[in-house]
Amino acid sequence: MIGLVAATANGRRNAAHLAEAWPDTRLYEDGPKDSLRRAWTECDGIVLFLAAGAAVRLIAPLLADKRGDPGVVCVDDAGRFAVALTGGHRKVGGANTLAWRVGDALGAEPVVTTASDALNAPALDSLGADLGFEVEENSDLAAVGAAMVSGERVSLISDHRWPFGPLPENVERTNEPKPPMILVTDRLLDAPRPSVVYRPPSLVVGVGCSRGAESGEILALVRSSLEEAGLSGKSVGALASVEAKSDEAGLLEAARTLGAPARFHPAAALAAMEVPNPSEVVERAVGTPSVAEAAVMVEGAELVAEKRKSAMATVAVGRLPVRGRLFLVGLGPGDGALIPPLARDALAHSELVVGLEQYVDRVRHLLRPGTRTSTPPLGEEVERARLALDEARAGGSVALVSSGDAGVYAMASPALELAGDDVDVMMVPGITAAQAAASLLGSPLGHDHASISLSDLLTPWTVIEDRLEAAAIGDFVIALYNPRSKGRDWQLGKARETLLQHRSPDTPVGIVREAYRPGQSVTLTDLGSLRPESVDMLTTVIVGSSRTEARAGRMVTPRGYEV
Predict the structure, then answer these.
(1) What percent of the chain clears pLDDT 70, i.e. is strictly above it?
(2) pTM higher than 0.85, yes or no?
(3) Where along the chain do its domains lie?
(4) Which CATH number among 1.10.630.10, 3.50.30.10, 3.40.50.11220, 3.20.20.150 corresponds to the domain 2-113?
């Protein structure tokens, strides 16, 4: 919940705007001092519409612990600046993120002075937060963070590779425990100081229990099993059991206490697992010879601690494989202002960016320090997809970039054809070439439309011609992709002949070259006058339907409203 506190009429107007725009807000309308005290205990973040000096004086008596205090952003009365004051890196309501959010909503300039953010480096207290990492108590966040932003060598030791994004070049992956150090592990150990220890949610605990088993007994067995295996309870990502135990109060309470979800599987799925310690007694009771060990294995985890028993419970522990991340990113047509915010965020979280050189060059300024790039040439689409997937399968975070939208005549299809369920794939949509061209022409796509690529490198021309014929008969507006190149100089002429069999020669046609790029050109002509030699691979051609009109130099396909 974000609290909104204002002192002036202008501040109250801006606060009311945020309250209307954001669903997760609470608007406080008492005096700023009383409102702030209430918001301090009720909200994760606070936006104060006050002068910075007044805000500091009001906040000072309330500050207690940066891990528990809400993140606070101060906005001046004119709404020009959103200043992150305290709690910059909190997971929820963090002031740095909140300052950017306020900036987007009010058109204000975010002001973030945290060293890691100013240097575009990750903040150690939130590193891996989106992966479920927990920072071990008494970690040396300040000392290691200072070393990192100062450019000193910082060691990174991790049991496995995790997709937490790029790290500065002075953070060196190594097996040598040399401080200052970042350590990512689910193992119990004494780390040399100074170090920051992260506990990833890498463990799953399988639990079997008798009816009525108490949560205290289950928890004691879980903790003793973990301790005997040398594993941290903070890395327990889930408890797993058989469906027959889904209403077992003690088991559900144990999961709540551990802060981990409880997941339940059919007995048949557990029975299909080959376990080291099956039991006929268990099979007679619940239909599977193993619950604890089999539940670990059905989660896809490797068994690292075989089952241990107490009077009414059984526990086994497994380690889950790390899932890498693949972002399939559409960068839009060309102008940096049209790169979607989701794409910018994906690029910032990717340690490797793969794409054609001209696309990667467009976004180099958005990449964080330590990000690697790979630019296989045109024609090696499958190789690009394989490279990105191999990196993700190894536990990395990768962005595979395309112009326009990655899912439209771009890299999403080959990547998804090769991808299995062993990586997390996230589609990041972009503005397509057809949309960009249409926006420059007017509104040619105002009614039903189709997109057809004239490239016969992967699709036989006979198939393309059939599709053109069908779209023409259906009276669709048609966006022609890949219309003409040096090696394919006749296809657009053939397409024009096909369309003229069903469309009038005066049908409006838009020709847009290099949309939203420095060499942009926009031409409005008609189908009879279309000259294929004026078109190349940097061009999108939009052919109107029988209802498309040229009005005031713009191309319009009416919806049918009376105007």
Answers:
(1) 97
(2) no
(3) 2-113, 129-199, 203-319, 324-431, 441-556
(4) 3.40.50.11220
